[in-house]
């Protein structure tokens, strides 16, 4: 059956299948835990080998999750693909940003500090004490950044 003879939906499926074949050239496959951090705008963040990935989009058929570097706006081209239900991501393009693990740890500490400040059980604590506790818990190289 030629593509001209197919209904429109079948043409789309074939196009997606062809597109998917060219998108599976993974550089390496890495495992990650489901995200415990969020960006300022509420997107989930996955940290893999000291670099952050955020969700970019979901495939039209709903089976694949596309990821990109959280520093994409500053020019990093890193991309990844994962199954929606999987905990492994295939990195298709490497990072070109200069994010360090200390930057990621600093962001994680800031996220935890914000979550503690939102928590009602810590409302009685002064904000100053929350910040001092968070700074004391950070490694020296992270606190220096």
UniProtKB/TrEMBL annotation:
Keywords: Metal-binding, Zinc, Zinc-finger
InterPro entries, sorted: Znf_FLYWCH
Superkingdom per UniProt: Eukaryota
Gene3D superfamilies listed in its UniProt record: 2.20.25.240
Domain FLYWCH-type: 37-95
MF-aspect GO terms: zinc ion binding
Name of the featured protein: FLYWCH-type domain-containing protein
């Amino acid at each position: 059956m030629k593509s001209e003879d197919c209904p429109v939906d079948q043409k789309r499926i074939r196009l997606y299948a062809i597109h998917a074949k060219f998108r599976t050239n993974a550089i390496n496959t890495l495992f990650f835990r489901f995200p415990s951090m969020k960006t300022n705008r509420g997107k989930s963040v996955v940290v893999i080998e000291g670099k952050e990935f955020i969700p970019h989009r979901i495939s039209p058929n709903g089976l694949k999750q596309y990821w990109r570097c959280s520093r994409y706006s500053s020019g990093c081209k890193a991309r990844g693909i994962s199954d929606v239900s999987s905990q492994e991501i295939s990195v298709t393009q490497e990072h070109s940003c200069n994010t360090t693990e200390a930057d990621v740890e600093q962001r994680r500490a800031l996220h935890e500090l914000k979550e503690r400040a939102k928590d009602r059980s810590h409302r009685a604590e002064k904000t100053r004490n929350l910040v001092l506790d968070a700074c004391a818990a950070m490694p020296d190289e992270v606190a220096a950044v």
